[in-house]
């Protein structure tokens, strides 16, 4: 079974998809058994673990955390939670940080606080941002804010688009990377220019940095230099670091103090959070230093997949971006999601190899996308092995299509 360091960043496309689709329990059990039984995978998912295994992994990691097991358990955010907050503030070069049980809560609080300070409730945000797509419009419905769209293109906005917005806004919220556009990032100079454009508009800048940890390679800058562009930064502890849950909001000390007050009002003042804090600290110790190697290998995996689809004669396919900006990217194929899901499960059951996990059809029926995460288990895969796995996967895709009486795409 994978250790804690192998368990990263697939909860959204595993557990959440099941919940939203109301998946049949037997189908879910089959899928998890197939993934869990695989000897080879690009990433290990957190939902593959039994509870006892998760506890064992956390206990195994804890002795390396500078005497953390000798601390008292936390009470309403002291002790190990404060240690985590200081660690994050130092890593990002910010004055202070506050721990939140969820990123949705952290972002609501940040935007609400900035609206109060700027006197402007308008947030400039991309329509594909997590705030828009995955948080049920929380900042609009709970905090009474309003959105404007700098662009609808599947990329971060440009400086000119920020300057050309036809109404004032108090906060510019940038998701780095923009997940639903393909985990894409701007170039460094373009990001600097966008921030400067927002300052010209007398707006503050908030980074949705749930996956900021793995963005340093693309930017060629360290975390403090990246974070210094923003007034506040939210980071996640489970999306790339293998944590149980939780997030942090970092920024000026006075704003973080205000955020802590709103955290209490929003119900985030949890009595004890030491398991979540310990898992986050373990992720910062173990996974954060590894992320650049995952990003580098993602380029190898993406290229091998792209070439394998072409060699197999797939009518149309896309790996996006062609060279991933982080250790995650999208794969698009011209088949129904249910066919690709079934083929992936059969590949895992028959060859003990998990290549792709969940597929979905966000646009035209029959055109499906999957998110690929390259983590520690993938580092042993050569390009040739990726090519072979893709070929084996496509063989099963065609078999499922034949059973359904459908032609190959």
UniProtKB/TrEMBL annotation:
GO MF, one example: L-allo-threonine aldolase activity
Domain named Aromatic amino acid beta-eliminating lyase/threonine aldolase: residues: 75-307
InterPro entries, alphabetized: ArAA_b-elim_lyase/Thr_aldolase, PyrdxlP-dep_Trfase, PyrdxlP-dep_Trfase_major, PyrdxlP-dep_Trfase_small
UniProt-listed Gene3D superfamilies: Aspartate Aminotransferase, domain 1, Type I PLP-dependent aspartate aminotransferase-like (Major domain)
GO cellular component: cytosol
SUPFAM superfamilies, per database record: PLP-dependent transferases
Transmembrane segments: none
Keyword field: Lyase, Pyridoxal phosphate
A GO biological-process term: L-threonine catabolic process
Entry cofactors: pyridoxal 5'-phosphate
Pfam family, one: Beta_elim_lyase
The protein's name: Putative lyase
Classification lineage: Bacteria, Bacillati, Actinomycetota, Actinomycetes, Kitasatosporales
